[in-house]
């Protein structure tokens, strides 16, 4: 996983911005239930009047507060109120503007809140909230508000309080629940504002509208943050997956044949597509959930307990049940994810083999057997996916049940709390919303716990390729070839065995191939002919001895410089989708048109261009399937010849070519590559009878080396091969 995290570094700014936007969104989401609570508690139940310092009050009320504080022997506390309120006389310009909302300002003096100093306001608020409930009851405001009494406060309670002495009243008010005290303040302020001629209904509508607009703005902030997170998250995940695919492809391009033996082609395709897609999904979901869910969960718990701490156990039970269910599903599903990816590899392998071997399957009439083979791989994957999906599908109905139980529990318990005055209706509604947010936060984190194991398996598979040590690399201190390159190749006591193998494939191979000569390599099947020539361009590295190019060990040469000296035609001729010109330029990108035509002429495939209306632009399908096997081989030969390299390797490259064309190519090749070192791997004796050097391999060892006539006399293996193909008189 550490290897994959390395690819996130270029996107650190995106990650920082995502965290910032998620923090903004989470806090905005957490504030919405509080605003809803205010609309219900203050806007609806309290007619838009908050238990706070009023903006205005009658002078008589202000003086009554002064008298109350004097009766309690606290006249110094009244100073805090005097510092924040000023008197507005009826004839003043200020009274005229205030009279629009407070008509009484035209008739009598009122006190208006004037200070903006936070410390002064806090001090005045403390005094007001402490003394005003006593004043409201003492002045018998209850008779005025009885018709509007809330469930938390009855008129009989207020009447009882108003009949007490100031000292008794003070003691009783101090003992009341804070919610009831705030209700007394609100009821008192309702009476105060009504006495001042204010339109209570308009105040209520104004408050609800103001809070509603604030909620709308917060919602817009939430939407903007969510869109920004989605954009940045998509950019992060898509960019990281793109970089991973590029890195994976580049790494595979560096692989030698030894590394390719460690991974099947189908597995590499799955790792490049499905596995990286799983990582991309994890990154996308992580940016949304990994940071957002903890903020919502922790913030929701803090705010929910602030609204109704007595119902904490409902959240605890719900989260406990959720975690238990997730843990069970986690234990069942996670071990299956690695099996799913292996089964997907298997399915891709079957599909790839069927597509590449379609002609063989049809010729042997094996369609039914291959269909059964595919069906088995497909069903195995489907059954495992169904198991995983069914286990995870159970989560949703169980989550719905838990959510509904939580909602019912909150309403049931909360209604009793409301009845006894412990909480208000708006707080209960906010608690319910916070509990849902907490629940969904844990649900999102659980989704991550489910998603992470599968993605981690995919990450391990991708990292396995990226971390694979490439066995064939450029030397730390490279040596460069002298110009011009002659192309002399010397094998000096070369041994080779495949990685992990016990036995040598090649043993004690020594010979020299000089420029201007053809070195033919022949032998029985499995004798190591193709392996020998694959050592020259370092597709494999020797395990013993050395191979020299112009006297320099090829392991000391940069790979690009070594391979630039070789025109290689592999045993299996591969063409790429495009046209003929593009395929030939694969050998030499900047080749001139006359060089391409010359290479095509030497390889005896020029007629394919001349007979086509498109000429060099004649299209070639994937793998060269729209040309014959012989044409495919000749185009592959032309691709190598266009390099005009000092070394040419033809690995059984004439097998699909008739003898006449074969002879024409070899004849033209002698003129075209007169100064080059040519290696020709073949199964046939006829094309190599006139080679300057023939190497006979048998079970990985050289059993004969020389020219045709010499080997016919001295090498039994060569003579047996020759006699099995040609008549005695043809071998002379």
Explain this structure.
By secondary structure, the protein is α/β, with parallel strands linked by helices. The chain folds into three domains: 2-35 and 210-466, ABC transporter transmembrane region fold (Up-down Bundle), CATH 1.20.1560; 45-198, no CATH class; 489-731, 3-Layer(aba) Sandwich (Rossmann fold). It has a six-stranded mixed β-sheet with strand order 9-12-13-6-14-15. Strands 5-4-7-8 form a four-stranded antiparallel β-sheet, with no helix packed on it. Helix 2 runs parallel beside helix 14 (292-307) and helix 13 (265-289) runs antiparallel to helix 19. The relative contact order is 0.08.
Number of domains: 3
How many helix segments? 28
Which shape, going by the Cα principal axes?
elongated
Helix content: 55-70%
Structural class: alpha/beta
- Cα(first) to Cα(last) distance is 67 Å
Q: How much beta, percentage-wise?
A: 5-15%
Radius of gyration: 45 Å
- In CATH, the homologous superfamily of the largest domain goes by the name ABC transporter type 1, transmembrane domain
């Amino acid at each position: 996983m550490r290897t994959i995290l390395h690819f996130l570094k270029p996107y650190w700014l995106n990650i920082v911005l995502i965290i910032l936007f998620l923090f903004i969104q989470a806090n905005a989401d957490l504030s919405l239930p509080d605003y809803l609570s205010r609309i219900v508690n203050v806007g609806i139940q309290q007619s838009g009047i908050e238990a706070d310092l009023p903006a205005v009050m009658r002078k008589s009320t202000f003086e009554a507060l002064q008298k109350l504080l004097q009766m309690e022997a606290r006249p110094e506390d009244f100073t805090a109120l005097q510092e924040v309120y000023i008197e507005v006389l009826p004839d003043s310009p200020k009274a005229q503007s205030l009279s629009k909302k407070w008509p009484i300002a035209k008739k009598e003096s009122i006190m208006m809140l004037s200070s903006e100093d936070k410390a002064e306001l806090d001090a005045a608020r403390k005094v007001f909230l402490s003394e005003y409930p006593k004043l409201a009851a003492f002045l018998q405001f209850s008779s005025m508000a009885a018709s509007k009494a809330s469930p938390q406060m009855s008129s009989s309670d207020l009447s009882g309080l108003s009949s007490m002495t100031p000292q008794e009243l003070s003691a009783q008010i101090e003992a009341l629940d804070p919610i009831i005290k705030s209700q007394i303040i609100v009821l008192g302020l309702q009476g105060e504002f009504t006495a001042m001629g204010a339109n209570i209904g308009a105040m209520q509508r104004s408050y609800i509208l103001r809070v509603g607009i604030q909620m709308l703005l917060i919602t817009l902030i939430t939407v903007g943050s969510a869109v920004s997170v989605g954009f940045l998250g998509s950019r992060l995940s898509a960019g990281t997956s793109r970089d991973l695919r590029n890195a994976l492809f580049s790494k595979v391009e560096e692989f030698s044949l030894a590394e390719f033996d460690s991974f099947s082609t189908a597995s590499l395709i799955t790792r490049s597509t499905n596995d990286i897609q799983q990582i991309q999904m994890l990154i996308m979901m992580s940016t949304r959930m990994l940071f957002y869910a903890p903020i919502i969960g922790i913030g929701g718990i803090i705010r929910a307990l602030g609204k109704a701490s007595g119902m904490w156990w409902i959240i605890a039970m719900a989260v406990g049940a959720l975690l238990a269910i997730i843990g069970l599903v986690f234990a069942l599903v996670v071990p299956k994810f690695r099996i799913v990816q292996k089964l997907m590899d298997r399915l891709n392998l079957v599909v790839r083999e069927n597509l590449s071997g379609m002609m063989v399957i049809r010729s042997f009439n094996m369609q039914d057997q291959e269909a059964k083979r595919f069906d088995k791989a497909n069903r195995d994957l489907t059954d495992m996916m169904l198991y995983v999906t069914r286990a995870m599908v159970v989560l949703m109905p169980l989550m719905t049940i838990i959510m509904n139980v939580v909602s019912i529990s909150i309403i049931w318990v909360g209604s009793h709390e409301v009845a006894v005055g412990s909480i208000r209706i708006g707080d209960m509604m906010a608690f319910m919303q916070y509990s849902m947010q907490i629940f969904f936060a844990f649900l999102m984190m659980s989704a991550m716990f489910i998603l992470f194991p599968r993605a981690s398996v995919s990450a391990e598979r991708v990292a396995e390729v990226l971390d694979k040590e490439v066995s064939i690399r450029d030397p730390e201190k490279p040596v460069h070839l002298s110009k011009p390159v002659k192309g002399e190749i010397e094998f000096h006591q070369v041994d080779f065995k495949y990685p992990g193998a016990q036995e040598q494939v090649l043993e004690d191979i020594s010979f020299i191939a000089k420029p201007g000569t053809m070195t033919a390599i022949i032998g029985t099947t499995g004798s190591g002919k193709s392996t020998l020539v694959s050592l020259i361009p370092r597709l494999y590295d020797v395990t013993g001895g050395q191979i020299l190019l112009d006297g320099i060990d090829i392991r000391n040469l940069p790979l690009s410089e070594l391979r630039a000296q070789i025109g290689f035609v592999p045993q299996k001729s591969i063409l790429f989708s495009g046209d003929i010109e593009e395929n030939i330029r694969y050998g030499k990108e900047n080749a001139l048109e006359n060089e391409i035509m010359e290479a095509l002429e030497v390889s005896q495939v020029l007629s394919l261009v001349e007979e086509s209306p498109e000429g060099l632009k004649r299209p070639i399908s994937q793998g060269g399937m729209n040309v014959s096997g012989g044409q495919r081989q000749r185009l592959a030969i032309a691709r190598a010849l266009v390099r005009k390299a000092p070394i040419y390797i033809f690995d059984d490259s004439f097998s699909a070519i008739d003898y006449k064309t074969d002879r024409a190519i070899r004849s033209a090749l002698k003129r075209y590559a007169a100064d080059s070192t040519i290696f020709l791997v073949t199964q046939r004796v006829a094309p190599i009878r006139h080679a300057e050097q023939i190497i006979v391999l048998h079970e990985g060892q050289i059993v004969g080396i020389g020219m045709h006539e010499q080997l016919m006399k001295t090498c039994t293996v060569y003579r047996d091969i020759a006699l099995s193909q040609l008549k005695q008189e043809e071998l002379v």
